[in-house]
Amino acid sequence: MKYKLVVKPKAEQDAKDAALWYNNKREDLGNEFLLAIEAQINAIHRNPNQFQIIYNSIRRALIARFPYGIFFIVEKNTIYVLAILHTFRNPQNWKNRK
Questions:
Q1: pLDDT of amino acid 66
Q2: Rounded Cα–Cα distance for residues 3 and 68 (Å)
Q3: What's the DSSP call for residue 89?
Q4: Is the dihedral of CA 17, 72, 68, 64 positive or negative?
Q5: Tens of pLDDT along 61-88?
Q6: Tens of each residue's pLDDT in the chain, 98 residues
Q7: What is the 3-state secondary structure (H, E, C) of 12-66?
Q8: Domain that holds residue 33
Q9: 45: number of CA atoms within 13 Å, CB side?
Q10: Residue 18 sits in a domain of what CATH number?
Q11: How many domains does the chain have?
């Protein structure tokens, strides 16, 4: 099945904020973080059902090398990326983002 991918503005902001934080820790680390996100979003786009449902219909894809998850839902033929958050953050941060 061919899926449409929609990254919500809050999820884009999550990624930008985290990338800035990582770039402040080490030069280019934020860029590496964004590349890891892009790779995982491509995997989600190819086969979203391979990722576990963790709450209601929300799935999570963990990001390689970084303690972050991409939280998304699949509705019909569209994938909605709701949040990109540190895995230790309060779950309420992504549960209310539909």
A1: 97
A2: 23
A3: S
A4: negative
A5: 999 999 999 999 999 999 999 999 998 8
A6: 899 999 999 999 999 999 999 999 999 999 999 999 999 999 999 999 999 999 999 999 999 999 999 999 999 999 999 999 998 876 666 566 66
A7: HHHHHHHHHHHHHHCCCHHHHHHHHHHHHHHHHHHCHHHCCEEECCEEEEECCCC
A8: 4-95
A9: 10
A10: 3.30.2310.20
A11: 1
Sheet hosting strand 53-55, strand order edge to edge: 4-7, 78-86, 68-75, 58-62, 53-55
d(CA 65, CA 92): 24
Tokens of 22: 């990582």
Q: How far apart are the first and last CA of the chain?
A: 23
- pTM as predicted: 0.90
DSSP letter for 86, please: E
